[in-house]
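Protein modeling request. Please complete all fields; requests missing the sequence field cannot be processed.
Requester role: graduate student
Desired output: 3D structure, token encoding
Chains: 1
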Amino acid sequence: MKKFLLVAFASFMICATSFAQSNSSLSPEAEARCTELTRKMALELRLNEPGYIQLKALNRDLMAKTEEIKQKFGSDEKLMKQKLQELAQTYDHNMQSFLKPDQMQAYANFKKENTHTRFVAAGAEN
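Delivered output (126 residues):
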């Protein structure tokens, strides 16, 4: 029974990740940047493989949505900043859904140490 549940969970995670990845298309450069960022975060947060998979899906989605917001609201800086802030809050909430308390603390430290990092598909840092 335990093996069945483990296989079912693994299958669900693979399908969920595939679905999440198919919804947000990134350029090859942005995909490489996303992978690099995810690996760095996974090391800092001490994530296991399922955690890494979830984090990568969140990072891909964040990068794609950030680029979308910049394209859509680029002419209205105030609205763009508001939308990016809302996106960041959603990202943090999604991180809380699977990180343990010690990992959340490591995530908070990571954010403080990497304030210059921007999750944008274009790779620009602001």
